[in-house]
Every structure is written in structure tokens, then in C-alpha cells.
Write a structure and sequence with these properties.
Helices cover 44% and strands 15% of the residues. By secondary structure, it is an alpha/beta fold. Helix 8 packs parallel to helix 10, helix 11 runs parallel beside helix 12 and helix 13 packs parallel to helix 15. It binds (3S,4R)-3-hydroxy-2-oxopiperidin-4-yl beta-D-xylopyranoside (XIL).
Length: 359
């Protein structure tokens, strides 16, 4: 049964691999998370769920939350101003509903998700177009969305001299575009958890130090103005290769976010392979260790409500093209390998949920 005649298949035949496969068949990340009051989810595209029924079954078994990887980005949902196409989002939302999973939408407002037509609008109409987009999309799923990634990657990087990234959104919709997007989303669906999502917040690096600090200031400003933001989404694109990590700095940051009355969502967890490990077993252990040390800190925080991995299996991962391994071997960044066998990362997630305090 385990003999699938490949390196990955051989690895799955190891004792640890067989035990993990048996455990993953008996329980699920979904159940382990749920026992602690947490959601476990993954990002996905509807075409894969339709084309790959074995994979679709695995998603339903293991996940209690489903979010779009790309299909609800602005350029796909509103390819022409005022013309909406919800068929991809609807397909995901229906898949989730039919399998008793929650559905999370996004990203509504992200400079990389913008349709081309947005950038040629004059400023007053750009802000109105953004508000209209948020209103229509969130309204379409009103009552059906657990959460929305309302604004994604708005924060500037260190040395850019401003708090917000210089994007067409900032230039055309104006400096209060974040606030306007959240207010429109809250009006369109008061029951959804509204998330401000951002990256490079996880490690003990000068860039991440700068960004934790700047993001806290931004959150303080937004909360001070009673902007209806519900949660911080911390993307959590991790990497192996001994990147400096400080539990106390990360914990301090999460505490400060919680003290503002916000929830926290791990929104895009995966692990790029940047270490020197070469065998599949060593690589998987390095990926698992990275998830382990990170989630150990994250899940102690009671305001964390969900962990979402950016995909579920190495078969479908953006990292295969975005961060390929230098030796050409296929990346293994997620809880399942390309043959849909649970990896050491599955075990790391399972262990992290099992030891997390209940919320
Ligand atoms: C990525 C998708 O996974 C890719 O398929 C797409 O080509 C580019 O975007 N941060 C985000 C996500 O917020 O939307 C990105 O998703 C990954 C980085």
C-alpha cells in the first residue's frame, strides 16, 4: 500500500512515515485544532478541487476553513469596472459549505491583486471604485464568510521613509484607503472577522523588528479611530536555514496586538527551503522544526483563532516557482508531500495543536 516506487514513497514507508499516515487517517488537523477552539485551514483554487478528487477529499478531511489562493483577488472578481464574476469564489464557498467547513474571503484590497483599469482612474473615482468593490464582494457572501482579508501588504519596508507602501491604492484612493476599506466591509457584512494581513513580521531581523513596530503603530491608529478591524493576519511565510528567531520578541508583539482587542490569524503558513539539508528526511525535519518553534510561540497566545497553510500539499504550492530549491529537487513546504502522504510538517502541526492551550 505504501510502496509507490519513488523517493517520496520510499520515505513514506519509513516507520515514522507509516505511523504518521496511520495517525492522519485516524484523526485530522481539523479535529486536533478544533479540540482547542482553533480552526485549521488551507488556501486553495477551485479548479484543483474539481480536477483532483483525492486531493479534494483530503482538504475536506483535514481542514475546517477554506480560503481562496487567488480566485477572489480584485482583478479576477471585477475584471472590468462594475462587472463582477463570482463563479470561482462561489465554487469554493459551496465546496466549503457542503463539507461543513468555514469559508474565508480575500484579498479585497491588495496592490498585486488590482485590475489594470484601477490605475487609470482619477483619484476621487478610485476611492469610490475601491469602496464599491469591497461593498459588492463582501455583500455577495454576506452571512457566509467567516473572515475577510480586507487589506493585504499595506505596510512599507524599512528605509522607504513612510508607514504605508507606495502603491496605486495609496496614490489614487488616498492615505485613508485602509480605513475606508474596513468601514465598507463592516457595513456589507457585520458578522465577518475583518483582517489586516501583512508579512515579514516573524523573525528576529532588523526588517522584521522595524515592521512589527510600524504595524503596531498602524494598528493603534486604526483602533484609535474605531476602524472596524477584527484581526491581524500574520502571513507566516517561514524559511529554513537558521534565520534568527526570538520567541520573546514575537510574543511581545502578539501580546501588544491582543491588548488592542484584536484577534490574530496565521494566514499563509508555509516553509521555503533555504537550508543546506539534502536528503528528504533531513529537509522534512528542518521544515517541521521551523513550524514547531514558530507555532509553539504563536499558539500560546489565546487571541490566535486560526492557522491557515498556503496550500496543503507540495503537489500544489506557489513556492515551487517562487522559491525553488537551488538543487532542482521539488520543494516540500507543507503538511502533505506531492503524493499526498503526510510529512513531518503534518506531525509538527498536529503536535502544536495538541499542546496548545484551549481557547
Ligand atoms: C500568491 C499565490 O500563491 C500565487 O499563486 C500567485 O501567483 C501570487 O500570489 N502573499 C500573499 C498571497 O498575500 O496572496 C500570495 O499568493 C503569496 C504571498
Amino acid at each position: 500500500m505504501y510502496c509507490v516506487g519513488s523517493v517520496a514513497g520510499f520515505y513514506a514507508m519509513s516507520r515514522a512515515g507509516m505511523l504518521r499516515t496511520a495517525l492522519a487517517a485516524e484523526t485530522s488537523l481539523r479535529e486536533l485544532a478544533s479540540a482547542k477552539g482553533l480552526l485549521y485551514g488551507c488556501a486553495n483554487s477551485p479548479d484543483r478541487l474539481t480536477a483532483d478528487p483525492v486531493f479534494a477529499r483530503l482538504v475536506a478531511e483535514q481542514c475546517s476553513l477554506l480560503v481562496p489562493e487567488n480566485s477572489l483577488n480584485w482583478k479576477y472578481v471585477e475584471p472590468r469596472y462594475g462587472e463582477f464574476d463570482f463563479h470561482l469564489g462561489d465554487s469554493l464557498a459551496t465546496f466549503a459549505k457542503d463539507r461543513n467547513m468555514k469559508f474565508g474571503g480575500g484579498t479585497l484590497v491588495w496592490h498585486e491583486g488590482l485590475p489594470q483599469w484601477f490605475s487609470s482612474l482619477p483619484p476621487p473615482s478610485a476611492k469610490a471604485a475601491m469602496v464599491n468593490h469591497v461593498t459588492q464582494v463582501v455583500g455577495h457572501y454576506r452571512g457566509h464568510a467567516f473572515s475577510w482579508a480586507v487589506v493585504n501588504e499595506a505596510l512599507a519596508f524599512r528605509g522607504q521613509g513612510a508607514m504605508l507602501k507606495d502603491t496605486p491604492l495609496l496614490r489614487l484612493a488616498g492615505p485613508d484607503y485602509i480605513e475606508a476599506a474596513f468601514r465598507a466591509a463592516a457595513l456589507a457584512d457585520p458578522s465577518a472577522l475583518l483582517v489586516l494581513n501583512d508579512n515579514h513580521l516573524e523573525y528576529d531581523l532588523p526588517e522584521d523588528d522595524y515592521r512589527r513596530d510600524a504595524l503596531l503603530k498602524l494598528l493603534q491608529q486604526l483602533v484609535g479611530k474605531k476602524v472596524p478591524i477584527g484581526a491581524l493576519g500574520i502571513q507566516s511565510h517561514l524559511r529554513t536555514g537558521d534565520v534568527p528567531f526570538s520567541s520573546s520578541k514575537l510574543k511581545g508583539f502578539l501580546d501588544s496586538v491582543s491588548d488592542l482587542g484584536l484577534k490574530i490569524v496565521v494566514s499563509e503558513l508555509d516553509v521555503a527551503e533555504k537550508g543546506s539539508e539534502a536528503t528528504v528526511a533531513d529537509r522534512d525535519n528542518a521544515v517541521a522544526k521551523e513550524i514547531d518553534r514558530y507555532l509553539e510561540v504563536i499558539l500560546q497566545e489565546k487571541s490566535v483563532v486560526a492557522v491557515v497553510t498556503w496550500g496543503l500539499t507540495a503537489k500544489y504550492t506557489w513556492l515551487a516557482s517562487y522559491a525553488p530549491r537551488s538543487d532542482g529537487q521539488h520543494v516540500r513546504p507543507l503538511p502533505y508531500d506531492s503524493e499526498l502522504h503526510p510529512t513531518a510538517a503534518w506531525q509538527a502541526l498536529a503536535t502544536a495543536f495538541a499542546r496548545a492551550p484551549a481557547r
